[in-house]
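Pasting as-is:
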Amino acid sequence: MNKIISNSEVTAIYRSRKAISTGVISLGLSGLLAGIIVADYIFLDFNYFRLFFHPLLLFVIWLLLSSWYKTFYKLTQTHLICRSGIFYASIEIARIKKIYIDKYLWVGFKPGLAWNGITIKYRLSSEIYISPENQDDLIARLLELNPKIEIVPAVSKK
């Protein structure tokens, strides 16, 4: 069972670094979907399809915007908490095995908004990709809390 973390236990909060491409996709798609809803009301007659279609589009817009504006990472003495919109992960720092620097995770939970971040391997085979603004500070604090973490540097491309 997950332990509930109070705000008094939080030692640091890191915002996610944001790539321009991620912003263009998130904000552009949100604008396009909002435009579809507006155009539907302006140019088309009422139909019952709207009753299902518009709430679905509004939900997708809300997911995209909440992920863009509410992606951050909280560090406590015992946990790394990752939040991206409505999605949430809590990782025990003692269970973190490795940190891969500049390794993008193509499959899995990725509460990171930039292409160059870190992939954290914890437990036996779980991985999460994050992209904190101050990546070096987060890694240093994680190492202070768990010195057994292995750091795997980025593979240089020649």
